[in-house]
What we know:
This protein has 371 residues and is α/β, with parallel strands linked by helices. It is 40% helix and 13% strand. The chain is built from 15 helices and 11 strands. The strands form 3 sheets. It has a 5-stranded parallel beta sheet, with helices on both faces. The chain has a 3-stranded antiparallel beta sheet with strand order 6-8-7. Strands 10-9-11 form a 3-stranded mixed beta sheet, covered by helices on one side. Helix 3 (61-75) packs parallel to helix 4 (86-98), helix 4 (86-98) packs parallel to helix 6 (123-133) and helix 12 (240-247) packs across helix 13 (251-262). The longest helix is centred in the first third of the chain and has 15 residues, at 61-75. The relative contact order is 0.11.
Amino acid sequence: MKNNIIxxxxxxxxxxxxxxxxxxxxxxxxxxxxxxKTFLVREYFEQEMVFQTSGLAGGNTQEQLKNFFYTLRRYDxxxxxxxxxxxDAFEMLITYLDSLNGIERKVVFLDELPWMDTAGSNFISxxxxxxxGWASARRDIVLIVCGSATSWxxxxxxxxxxxxxxxxxxxxxxxxxxxxxxxxxxxxxxMMLSRYELxxxxxxxxxxxxxxxxxxxxxxxxxxxxxxxxxxxxxLYNEFSILYRSLFKDSEAYVKVVECLxxxxxxxxxxxxxDATGMKSGKSLTTILDNLESCGFIRKYVNYGCSTRKALYQxxxxxxxxxxxTVPFSTSGFISLKIExxxxxxxxxxxxxxxxxxxxxxxxxxIITEI
Length: 371
């Protein structure tokens, strides 16, 4: 285990087996935005990484190729000209990797892969050529690809029916921190919470490392939530505006499904979701449900004694968001409040629409009712 990585024991075990396998590996790391995919890969393979690059958000094909070249040139001074296309780019990468004599295992990390795949770029074909025509025949390449755009990762890579069909050797779906991992993470920041406060925090922010890292250890939990979520200048005030769009193509359809599920807390069957949203119960809905489940925004379960055809889909438990609340969290004393957390943050934001109820801990304080 790496001392600089909090938790992630099973993921680290998997990465260790991959590195020590003695054969070339093609690994896809998936997970929702801000969950720590890039950090895990970079920190775990800090000493073994021979090349890493990341796609440019919103960049066109030429900009993506320039970015790839400039990064490669920092590793290989023999790279002298911008590649004409992705085939040329991967050929340049092969030349560089071939020159690394004496290195037993070569870890190559391509981050934010969906951004590299611009319209008409033939990126996937070039990636197929790199893996099928060169890397897979060797024993020293560990190719790790990563991306937050879940729909792209599922459609273009994991469920690829072309040249990459069945080529992935491992799929790693990174989930949010558990309660225990969240507590360990906060302790490294010097933030000591009671178990009750930790449970409250987990219900609000979930186990997302990026969100937890924004907490200020000098402030109380209530003050932190007020500052991050309710203040117009808060770092998470408009988080949702980019979250679902960054994860899913046709994000409005995904939001519609999650909002629908939130209306019935115990869950809905697939046919009920289709009826409530007006969607056809076909491949498109299957893709949406599968992708939402992969990100942990919803869960699928079957009641005891029921067939799998009657499986229920339920919105996730961990969410954050404050509706257009003009009433901030109390910054002194204990409070009892019931706030429908989401319209601007969660459902319109990170996970699923959830109502967070805070139990009354001191009856001397006034009760803030539903907004």
